[in-house]
Structures are given as structure tokens and as C-alpha cells.
Amino acid sequence: MEKYRCTICDYIYDPAEGDAAGGIPAGTAFADLPHDWVCPVCGAGKDDFEPA
Asked: What pTM did the predictor assign?
């Protein structure tokens, strides 16, 4: 699965790791994240991410 980078703070969303603090289990593809998911570092929305 492809990783995605936040264009605001450079956080990398890695589907293999998920976002435990945000309640996203490992193995969740970026496309499958809830529409209201935000970057755990800076709070940017999914529209501010691009393939890493």
C-alpha cells in the first residue's frame, strides 16, 4: 500500500502502521480513511496529502 505525505508538515501516513492515536488500525489504506480524518501532527485534512 502506498504511503502519503502531508504537504503542510511532511508527516508520512503509512498504511502498514495506521494511526493508532486516531483510532485507525494498521492495514488501513489512505483511500479508506474517514473523510474527516486529519493529520495527527498538524491537523491538515486529507486534501493536503499527496503520494509519498
From this structure: 0.94
